[in-house]
Amino acid sequence: MRATRRAVLGAALLPLPALAQAWPDRPVTLMVGYGAGGATDIIARTLAERMQPLIGQPVVVQNVTGAGGTIASDRTAKAAPDGYTILLIANAHAVAPGLYARLPYDTVADFAPVYFAGHSANVLVVPEASPDRDLAELAARGRAARQPLQTGSAALAGWQPAHQIMKEALGLPMEHVPYRSGPQGQTDLIAGRLDFMVSNVLEVIEHVRSGRLRALAVTSPTRSPLLPDVPTFFELGVPALQADSWFGMIAPKAAPGPALDRLHDGFAQVGAMPEVGPKLRDLGLIAAPMSRSEWGAFYLAQVEQWSAVPRRAGIRIE
Q1: What is the CATH number of domain 28-119+245-313?
Q2: For 117, which of 12, 50, 79, 192 is 20 to 30 Å away at the CA?
């Protein structure tokens, strides 16, 4: 009895972190469905590299590209639900169930919320040599051209919503070129092989600042603080294209809540660090702290909203 009491007393005196050391006992994998250098990759690496002191194990970013991010989503859905595999997603993940005829996972039922990283504007950009000085000139040139304008993005699911809304609102013919990452498409855009792109501001802000790309409009409800002279699509008469990109982390549905809570709290601490928050803000990411349950509710609403866009357009990928 005395030994038992001593053991109980010893356990009671241990700090809570010591009691929780059973998880994690190995590195956590943070998957990204797109190539290096894109917005999701930048956010993932910025947050992951400072997690080890907080949870006792490194968070390793793994780029799993292909099929508009759905390969990474499928691997996450089918991973062991032990808290060691998570995925950073953006809007394209919410578009996929409306765009693809068949997905190997259920976008709603197979995932649990972990952490909401924030949101940022998308921006319509053209190359420096483009004759288009504003959205009206781009639209007029596109409607008058014999061939559709060339645009691109990181795979079809990342392209569909913004470009479909531009088609509907402006009658703008366009042909889409998919890339494994946004920066690959931006390289072709800068070289003049594309007419325009709608890219996340995190990916193109340095190209705009250097003059290699020209920004014509932003998708955010208000003007971006990084591009205060660039009008919103709403100001230009396209109110339907009024939505920021968002970025959040999810895990396999049955992953243990305490592990996901610990990841959420760790990432929240990293995002609040003085060397991290300003860095992400300078790139255009606006923090919007959410609890795990709030992020989960937001996620479900976003899947409903964005999956409806390709369904409305009658576009399906078999």
Answers
A1: 3.40.190.150
A2: 79
